[in-house]
Amino acid sequence: MANPGYGKRSAPDQLRRTAHDFAHLPPREAAIAAYVDRLPEGADISVKTLAKTTPYGQCALRTALNRIQAAGHLRRGRERVEAEDGGSRWITRSWWSRTARDDGWWAGFTRGEVPEEDPPPPPPTRSRAHILLAALGRNTPCLSLSAADCVRLAPLVEEWFARGAGEETIVATLTAGLPTPVHSPAALLHRRLTDKLPPPPPAPRPPRRVMECAECGVPGHPDALPGGLCNGCRDQPAPTRATAPLPAPAIHALADGIRAAMSLRRERTT
Length: 270
What we know:
By secondary structure, this protein is α+β, with helices and mostly antiparallel strands. The protein folds into two domains: 8-112 and 207-232, no CATH class; 128-195, no CATH class. Helices cover 43% and strands 10% of the residues. Helix 1 (27-37) crosses helix 3 (58-70), helix 5 (128-139) packs across helix 6 (147-162) and helix 6 (147-162) runs parallel beside helix 8. The radius of gyration is 32 Å and the shape is elongated. It starts with 7 loop residues before the first strand and ends with a helix. The model is unreliable at 116-120 and 238-242 (pLDDT under 50).
């Protein structure tokens, strides 16, 4: 596992895991992607750590992860998060998606504009608000409601939930200081739910994320990093293999030749 706050971060709205999630990748890349996909949230998925837990070396893993990234399963970058002391700091992120995403989706994710791919599940027959209203009469008999009353008042309770109020807060507001007798529980609850509605919560801040080139680490706009690579790294030719070092006798011979050439040049100039 990586340090708290770092490591693998799963992207939202992924499809369910199947046996064919990475069938479009070459065998090695598919095996590595399947392994990373099953790692827990926050796991260290750096090249060095994966080299210790998989049968592949760092060079092979670096190439494989770049191909997995080009296929839309991985992006690397940084995200600004709030600290406990009230400040903020930039955190290195490795975002993982079992579902392959195109560059446009990752650009929207960077801006916090991720569309939902699957339709939301249908709401239950009795909503959380409906259940709360129906249960009021158990502890406070004078607030017993009919099924029709619960249906009419449920949208008002849902608005309280949307504004961050919990069930205990809502129940306390509806049951405190009741008049005696309560002639119309539905009318009284409607009035309290309307007059005591808490203010809306502040709008959430959009995420501050920066994508980085997987090869050189240069930050940039997602549009400038297609496939997770900058233009320079994408067009850069493969590095040539360094030649083997010369043995000591050969080095001495070359040095002697250079000294002899320099001595001959000095003799000609004098």
